[in-house]
């Protein structure tokens, strides 16, 4: 009875009252990585909005996943990191529990969207003629709303099955199980373990299986239809597929680490970084891989476009950028007043889009279809 009288619910979720060197390192790293991951998600949305190839079902699902990542990153940058640094000794345990459910809701939605993106690439490679029908605008919205409703319903399971809550413990750098009584033998949440394991099997392993079949189809097309394999549309599908595979490999490693270490109280600092902060590492890697494997993203971010070529009067060739770099530090060079008065304007016709390109009196050359002379400027 004496032991029960001193029992305090949620003591595992309290800080130690002072911060050690390890607390400061882990706390500042978590806050920093959370802020970087949030900025990466914002960059994803900017790329999706401004690059035409992402104006599709793939881009819609990617944007949905990026929004889920943004809300998830807020909990790391504004709660987990600061709480670890401050090590608040007397804090309401229900605050930690609510933050955990908030973060897990959006993490679950992110896993669903990752699986949907793999299915999207599967259809694009296996059934390209039915892609528009399968991933219509109505179906895309239905999938996103259904995934959101499913992720929101996850916290309700902790109400149906009591004594299963877990939350972040700043002393352990992990999600820990707060015991409901002093004589309770169990020190883990069975429901949390089942949810994480289910997410690993369905989202990670399921995504890997889908990507493997997509890879087999790409290999089959490579040896049976050289024309389709070398087409620009199929090359774009391959780039987006490689983008998803690179993320899935990293995600499986992190998810397996979370499955092993995330609810343990004696985990090392490296294990804590890989298991707890591993999720935001995935989000940062998503943006990095998006820029690496897509030349359109690289051109937009770094401004290295050479979409058209115009010859100078001396016979040399000049590459002209089609847009200013997104992170440009200096503006593009301006023409002089004399050049502005004497030059002629030409329009480049590419599909249904028209571009106005300046030339110094010489005939312009287009890499795609050619130039059409316009009015004198």
Mind sketching the topology for me?
Layout: H1 2-5, H2 21-50, H3 57-86, H4 93-126, H5 131-134, H6 137-152, H7 154-160, E1 167-169, E2 174-176, H8 190-224, H9 226-229, H10 232-261, H11 269-275, H12 278-292, H13 295-302, E3 308-311, E4 317-320, H14 337-342, E5 344-350, E6 353-359, E7 371-376
Antiparallel strand pairs: 1-2, 3-4, 5-6, 5-7
Helix pairs in contact: 2-3, 2-12, 3-4, 4-6, 4-8, 4-10, 8-10, 10-11, 10-12
Give a structural overview:
- InterPro entries: 7TM_GPCR_serpentine_rcpt_Srx.
- Keywords: Membrane, Transmembrane, Transmembrane helix.
- This is 7TM GPCR serpentine receptor class x (Srx) domain-containing protein.
- With 377 residues, the protein is mostly helical.
- It folds into two domains: 2-302, Up-down Bundle (Rhopdopsin 7-helix transmembrane proteins); 308-376, no CATH class.
- It has 14 helices and seven strands.
- The protein has helices at residues 2-5, 21-50, 57-86, 93-126, 131-134, 137-152, 154-160, 190-224, 226-229, 232-261, 269-275, 278-292, 295-302, 337-342, and strands at 167-169, 174-176, 308-311, 317-320, 344-350, 353-359, 371-376.
- The chain has a three-stranded antiparallel sheet with strand order 6-5-7, with no helix packed on it. Strands 1-2 form a two-stranded antiparallel sheet.
- Strand 3 and strand 4 form a beta hairpin.
- The longest helix is centred in the middle third of the chain and has 35 residues, at 190-224.
């Amino acid at each position: 009875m004496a032991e029960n009288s001193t029992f305090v619910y949620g003591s595992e979720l309290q800080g130690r009252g002072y911060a050690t060197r390890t607390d400061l390192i882990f706390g500042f790293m978590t806050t920093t990585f959370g802020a970087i991951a949030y900025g990466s998600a914002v960059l994803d949305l900017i790329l999706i909005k401004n690059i035409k190839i992402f104006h599709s079902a793939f881009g819609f699902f990617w944007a949905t996943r990026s929004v889920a990542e943004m809300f998830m990153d807020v909990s790391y940058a504004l709660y987990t990191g600061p709480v670890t640094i401050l090590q608040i000794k007397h804090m309401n345990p229900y605050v930690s529990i609510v933050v955990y459910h908030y973060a897990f809701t959006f993490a679950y939605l992110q896993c669903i969207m990752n699986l949907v993106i793999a299915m999207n690439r599967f259809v694009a490679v296996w059934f390209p003629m039915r892609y528009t029908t399968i991933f219509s605008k109505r179906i895309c919205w239905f999938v996103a709303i259904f995934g959101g409703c499913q992720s929101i319903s996850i916290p309700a399971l902790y109400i149906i099955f009591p004594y299963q809550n877990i939350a972040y413990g700043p002393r352990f750098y992990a999600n820990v199980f707060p015991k409901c009584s002093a004589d309770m033998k169990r020190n883990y949440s069975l429901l949390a373990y089942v949810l994480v394991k289910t997410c690993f099997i369905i989202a990670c392993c399921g995504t890997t299986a889908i990507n493997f079949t997509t890879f087999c189809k790409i290999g089959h097309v490579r040896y049976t239809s050289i024309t389709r394999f070398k087409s620009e549309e199929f090359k774009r599908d391959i780039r987006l597929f490689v983008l998803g595979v690179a993320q899935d490999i990293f995600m499986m490693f992190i998810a397996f680490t979370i499955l092993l270490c995330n609810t343990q109280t004696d985990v090392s600092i490296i294990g804590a970084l890989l298991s707890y902060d591993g999720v935001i590492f995935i989000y940062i890697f998503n943006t990095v891989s998006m820029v690496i494997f897509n030349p359109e993203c690289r051109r937009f971010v770094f401004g290295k476009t050479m979409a058209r070529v115009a010859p100078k009067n001396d016979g040399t060739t000049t590459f002209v950028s089609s847009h200013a770099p997104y992170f440009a530090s200096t503006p593009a060079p301006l023409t002089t007043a004399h050049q502005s008065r004497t030059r002629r304007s030409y329009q480049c016709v590419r599909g249904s889009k028209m571009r106005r390109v300046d030339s110094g009196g010489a005939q312009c050359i287009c890499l795609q279809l050619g130039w059409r002379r316009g009015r004198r400027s």
